[in-house]
Write a structure and sequence with these properties.
Strands 2-3-1-4-5 form a 5-stranded parallel beta sheet, sandwiched between helices. By secondary structure, the protein is of the alpha/beta class. Helix 1 runs parallel beside helix 7, helix 2 packs across helix 7 and helix 4 packs parallel to helix 5. The longest helix is centred in the middle third of the chain and has 21 residues. It is built from 7 helices and 5 strands.
């Protein structure tokens, strides 16, 4: 299917089909740090009318500083972040006047973060960017102007440092290959947005 037909179909879907579950369709692009989530989300925004939400704005200064020290957020810190992020998304959705999709690109490394977000937004479509750790680590090392640089876990006695690992995904979701070209992944993503009845993995 050509990009032109994909975009025409998406436009029709936006005008007639997106208010069944919510005024705005919610797309969550997630995966390990360095998977390519933000790049894909920004590429999608150049192809279709949608708005991007950056959950990094909900990460506290203390959490950012701890990341730089190799200290991963505790369960309580992650819970507070998740609640703040849900409130932020709620507020942004409430102020939107158009039915354009809302796209969130965030790692959602841990199951507790995912569970809180999925409970609040059960209609969201989850898209996993599946990227090998070696590729993701190389991308992280080349990052500019981002607080997370792939710092190794601290050797201090923080019991939650094992939570740096990306947890297996146990709920229905779609998968994009993070090593594919940006153009291919954007076309796949548009198909997913169009096809509400597609059965995720």
């Amino acid at each position: 299917m050509s990009r032109l037909y994909l975009l025409i179909g998406l436009s029709i879907g936006l005008n007639y089909g997106l208010e069944r579950k919510s005024k705005n369709k919610l797309i969550v692009i997630f995966g390990r740090p360095g998977a390519g989530k933000t790049t894909i989300a920004q590429g999608l925004a150049k192809e279709i009318e949608c708005f991007l939400l950056d959950l990094d704005v909900c990460i506290s200064k203390e959490m950012r500083n701890n990341f730089n020290k190799g200290i991963y957020p505790s369960l309580e810190e992650r819970k507070q972040f998740a609640l703040d992020a849900c409130a932020y998304v709620d507020n942004e959705l409430a102020t939107q006047l158009s039915p354009n999709p809302c796209v969130i690109a965030f790692s959602f490394v841990n199951t507790d973060l995912r569970d809180i977000f999925r409970h609040r937004f059960p209609y969201a479509q989850w898209i996993l960017i599946d990227t090998p750790s070696q590729v993701a680590d190389l991308r992280i090392s080349n990052r500019q102007n981002h607080f997370y640089k792939g710092n190794k876990p601290s050797s201090s006695s923080h019991s939650h440092n094992h939570d740096w690992l990306f947890a297996p995904v146990s709920f229905p979701h779609h998968i994009l290959d993070g090593t594919q070209s940006l153009d291919i992944n954007i076309q796949h993503l548009i198909r997913i947005i169009l096809q509400d009845d597609e059965q995720p993995l």
